[in-house]
Amino acid sequence: MTGPADIIFYALAILTVVSAILVATLPSIIYSAVALLFSFAGVAGLYVLLSADFLAATQILVYVGGILVLILFAVFLSNRISSVNLSSPMRFRWPAAVICLCLFGVLSYTAVSTPYAVKPLITYQPTTAEIGELLMTRYLLPFEAVSVLLLAALIGAALLSRPDVAQAGKPDMEEPK
Q: How far apart (Å, rounded) are the C-alpha atoms in residues 54 and 61?
């Protein structure tokens, strides 16, 4: 385990885990969103190392390009986010730390003591052509059903976010003088 792929794997794993910890512990939501960007990028890099090119591209496009940008827009467009003081009570910090350390110990022991079967190296085969063929042949109906469902959800979200049209035209009961 001394090849360049191992070093890249450990670097990406450390990046992902440290960024995920920062997402949960940073006091500023902007800094947490930037840490989430690095966590998503680390996961995409791990997918590349697993030869899952489609999943890596999907991770970048959907999570970094969609979800993270949506979170950042929501934070930047919210006018009251700067005045909110986010604080958590300190009374459960030590029991939570003990539980997390015990869970980490159990998972580490399991990972070290499990005999893993090592398969021989195979050549890299792109997966996008096979996934595209399956989406356009065997899974065409579920693919289209999901697209219609997402369109309906988008239209519903747009309608729910609009101000009430019936209330906008009515004057208030009392006019200020």
A: 10
Q: Is the distance from CB of 46 to CB of 11 less than 8 angstroms?
A: no
Helix and strand counts by DSSP (H, E) for the chain: 8, 0
Q: Which two tokens stand for residue 32?
A: 């947490």
Beta strand spans in 63-175 (E): none
51 is in which domain, residue-wise?
Answer: 1-79
Residues 75 and 131 in one domain: no
Nearest to 65 by CA among 75, 77, 57, 53: 57
* Pair (6, 65) in one structural domain: yes
How does pLDDT run across 109-165, given as a tens digit for each residue? 999 999 988 878 777 778 788 888 888 899 999 989 988 998 898 888 878 877 765
Tokens (6 digits) for 37? 């960007």
